[in-house]
C-alpha cells in the first residue's frame, strides 16, 4: 500500500487466530516479464480455534483478478478490492482456485515477483506473497506447497522453487516446465521461485546420518568463479549446526541464488535461499577480508534459519526476534568458531568486540530515538520498518544471556526441548523462554521483561573494601539510560541481568572468587544475577584492594557506570585477562579524551593530547603477545557517530576536529612504531582469507591509515602507491586508495586521482567493486574548497550510478548520509537537503530502501540548535511529499 490515507496501526494485543486455515497450496506460474499469470489452488478449512466468519478475506496487492472456482466450479461471489479479495459465503471446507496476474517487470519495489537482469526472483518476507497471488499472508498460516513453473526455455533455462524437483520437461510451444514439491509446512513468506539464465557450482556431501545432499550456488555465468567461498561457508554451516545443535539438513538439496537487485542481505526461503550478490560473490581480486567474513556469516545465518525460523517459525510479526535474534546469535557463535574454534579465546573475543561495536553504535542509538521499541514490539504501521537493530542485534544479546545464565550445556538442553515441542509450528518468544526454563528447572518469568521493555539499561556500580575483614563489596543498581518517551513508556520493573565480574589484584593477576556464604572459591569470573533494583554482592578472602573488571565479555546489553580513573583504565588495558574488557578500557580512555577535546574545539580553545593516551596506544601497538586483529580493534578510535551520541548536544564538527587532531597526534608521536607495524604485518605470497592473515592485513592497513595523517605524508604516499600498484587482493588495494584519499583531503595534492581512475577502469565490469569505488568517495573527508557533497552530486550523474539498484544507492547515497557525519552535517544544511531529495526520489521507486535512508535523521533533536532547525525543515519536507507508509511512519514518529 502506497497512499496518503491515515495508516492503520497493528497492535500485538489485537492478535487473533486466522478464521481459516490452508493445508495445501498448488501454484502454477506462466512466467512472462510484462504479465505473469498465476493459478493457485488452495485446500481451505475453517479454524476451529477462531471466531467463525461467513467470508474468506485474502490479502492481495497490485494484482489483476481473472477468475475463481470452488471445488472445481466457477464461483462468482468474489469481490476484488485494493487490499485483497473477499470470497463470500464459503463452506466449512473447500478447494479454492484463483487465477490472477502480476507485472514483474514493472515491480521496482523488489517485493513479490520481480525481474532483475532479465531473470525472475521473489522476495516474500514480510508481505510480498500478496503481490504474487491472493492469500492469508500471515506467518501462522502454514501449508505444504507444490509449484509448477512454465517459461520460455531459451530465455529461462533454469526454473527453481522450494523443496525437491519432482518433474520437468519440454512443452510444445518452445517453453518448458519444472515441478517442485516442498514436503514441510511453511508460511507464505518462505515461498520462493527463481527463473533465468543461471549456472551453478555444485557439491554433494553426506549429512551426519549418512544421507547424500546436493548443494548448489546459482549465479549469472560470468560470476561462477566467485562462488567457492560461499559454497565452503555453506558446507561449514551444515557441519557446525550438526555438531553444535544436532540439527541436520532435512531436504535432499539446498540452493543459494545470487541476485544484484535485492532490498536486504539475503532471505532464508525453505531450501532456496535468495541472496544479495554482495553476500555470495568473492575472490581475492574483488572482495575484501570483511567481505569474506560477511559472506561466511550471512550464509551461515540463512542456513541456520532452516531450523530457527523455518521448521519453527513465528506466530506473528511481533515475534520476529524469535527467529532473527536467535539466528543472529547462532551466526555469531558460528563465526567465532570459524575464526579460531572454541579453544582460541582471543579469536572469539575479537569477534565479540566486533559485534558489540555494532550494537553500541547502532542499536543503543535506536533505543534513544523515536523508533525505540522492545525486542518484541507492541505495535507497528509498516512491518518492514521493524527489521531493526533492536530485533536482530539486541535480540541476539537476549538469546546470549540465556546461555550466560544456563551455561552452554543448559542452553543446548533448552534448544532441544524447543524443537521437540514446536517443530512444524508458528510460536512466540514466550514459547522459547518456557523451553529454556523448563529444560533447566529455572524460573525465568522476570526475564520476559527483556522482550517487553525498550531502552538501554544502565547499571551503576559502587564498591568498598574492608581491610579488616578482607571483604570486597560490589553494589549494582539498575535503571535506564535517558532514552526516548517511546522507550520510557514500556519500562515497568527491574530486569534479570547476568553481570559477569572479575577482580584483579595489584600484581595484575585475577583473584579467585568466593562469595560470602560459599565454602570455597570458584573460578576468577563470576556471573552475578541482578534481579532487584539494587543488590550488593560481597566477596570474601580478598587479600588486597582489587580493581573490578566489570561486565566481562559484555554479558548483558547494558551501559555500566563506574568511575574508573585514567590510571585504572590504563591498568586494565595492560592486565585484564578478559580480552573484551581490555579493549573496553582502551575505548573508555579514548572516548574520555576525545569528548574533552571536542568540548574545547566547540569552544574555540586550543587542543592538546593527554600523554597517557599516547602511552596506552604505544603499549598496545608494540605488544607482540597480542594478536594483530585485537591490536587493530584496540587501536581504532571510537567512531565520530558514537562520540557525537555521547554528547549532551551532538556537535559533529567539533567531534571531527577532535578526532582528526588525535589521529594526527598519534600518527606523529608513534610514527616509527606505525612504520614498524606496517612492515612486520606484510603478508607476502598468495592471498588467503584466513582470520590470521586478515588480522595482519588489518593492522598493517590501520598503520597506513595513521601514517596518511602526517604533515609530511610523502612516505605514506609512497607506501600507499606501491601497495596499490602491487596488491594481489582487494583488501590491500582499497586500503591503499583510502590512504591516498586521506592525504588528498589533508591538502596533499591530487594524489588519489590517478588511482581512482585506474580503479574504475580496472573493475568497471564488477558491480560490487564499483560499489566500493562509490563508497570510498562518498566517505572521504572532503576539503573546504570541495566538500564531499559536491563529489557525491557529481557521481549521481555518473553512467555507472543507478538509484534503482539498492546496492548502488547504498554505496553512494547511504554512505554519505550515514558514514560521513562531518560532511553530511555541514553547517549550511546542504546534506539535509540532499537527504530529503533522495528519500523522496527513492520513496517513489522502493519504499523499503527509502525508509532505511529516512532513519538517518531520527535523532535530530539531540543536535545543536542550528543543525536541529535545518533537520526539522528537511523532515517536514519529506513528511509533506512522501507517499508510502514505510517512509511516513519514520518521519512522522521523528517529528512527533
Automatic annotation (TrEMBL):
<dbReference type="InterPro" id="IPR045357">
    <property type="entry name" value="Aminopeptidase_N-like_N"/>
</dbReference>
<keyword id="KW-0862">Zinc</keyword>
<dbReference type="InterPro" id="IPR014782">
    <property type="entry name" value="Peptidase_M1_dom"/>
</dbReference>
<feature type="domain" description="Aminopeptidase N-like N-terminal">
    <location>
        <begin position="97"/>
        <end position="190"/>
    </location>
</feature>
<comment type="similarity">
    <text>Belongs to the peptidase M1 family.</text>
</comment>
<keyword id="KW-0482">Metalloprotease</keyword>
<keyword id="KW-0479">Metal-binding</keyword>
<dbReference type="Pfam" id="PF11940">
    <property type="entry name" value="DUF3458"/>
</dbReference>
<dbReference type="GO" id="GO:0016285">
    <property type="term" value="F:alanyl aminopeptidase activity"/>
</dbReference>
<dbReference type="InterPro" id="IPR035414">
    <property type="entry name" value="Peptidase_M1_pepN_Ig-like"/>
</dbReference>
<protein>
    <recommendedName>
        <fullName>Aminopeptidase N</fullName>
        <ecNumber>3.4.11.2</ecNumber>
    </recommendedName>
</protein>
<keyword id="KW-0378">Hydrolase</keyword>
<dbReference type="InterPro" id="IPR012779">
    <property type="entry name" value="Peptidase_M1_pepN"/>
</dbReference>
<dbReference type="InterPro" id="IPR024601">
    <property type="entry name" value="Peptidase_M1_pepN_C"/>
</dbReference>
<keyword id="KW-0031">Aminopeptidase</keyword>
<keyword id="KW-0645">Protease</keyword>
<dbReference type="GO" id="GO:0008237">
    <property type="term" value="F:metallopeptidase activity"/>
</dbReference>
<dbReference type="InterPro" id="IPR038438">
    <property type="entry name" value="PepN_Ig-like_sf"/>
</dbReference>
<dbReference type="InterPro" id="IPR042097">
    <property type="entry name" value="Aminopeptidase_N-like_N_sf"/>
</dbReference>
<feature type="domain" description="Peptidase M1 membrane alanine aminopeptidase">
    <location>
        <begin position="230"/>
        <end position="450"/>
    </location>
</feature>
<dbReference type="GO" id="GO:0006508">
    <property type="term" value="P:proteolysis"/>
</dbReference>
<dbReference type="Pfam" id="PF17900">
    <property type="entry name" value="Peptidase_M1_N"/>
</dbReference>
<dbReference type="InterPro" id="IPR027268">
    <property type="entry name" value="Peptidase_M4/M1_CTD_sf"/>
</dbReference>
<dbReference type="Pfam" id="PF17432">
    <property type="entry name" value="DUF3458_C"/>
</dbReference>
<dbReference type="Pfam" id="PF01433">
    <property type="entry name" value="Peptidase_M1"/>
</dbReference>
<feature type="domain" description="Peptidase M1 alanyl aminopeptidase Ig-like fold">
    <location>
        <begin position="455"/>
        <end position="563"/>
    </location>
</feature>
<dbReference type="GO" id="GO:0008270">
    <property type="term" value="F:zinc ion binding"/>
</dbReference>
<feature type="domain" description="Peptidase M1 alanyl aminopeptidase C-terminal">
    <location>
        <begin position="567"/>
        <end position="896"/>
    </location>
</feature>
<dbReference type="InterPro" id="IPR037144">
    <property type="entry name" value="Peptidase_M1_pepN_C_sf"/>
</dbReference>
<comment type="function">
    <text>Aminopeptidase N is involved in the degradation of intracellular peptides generated by protein breakdown during normal growth as well as in response to nutrient starvation.</text>
</comment>
<dbReference type="InterPro" id="IPR001930">
    <property type="entry name" value="Peptidase_M1"/>
</dbReference>
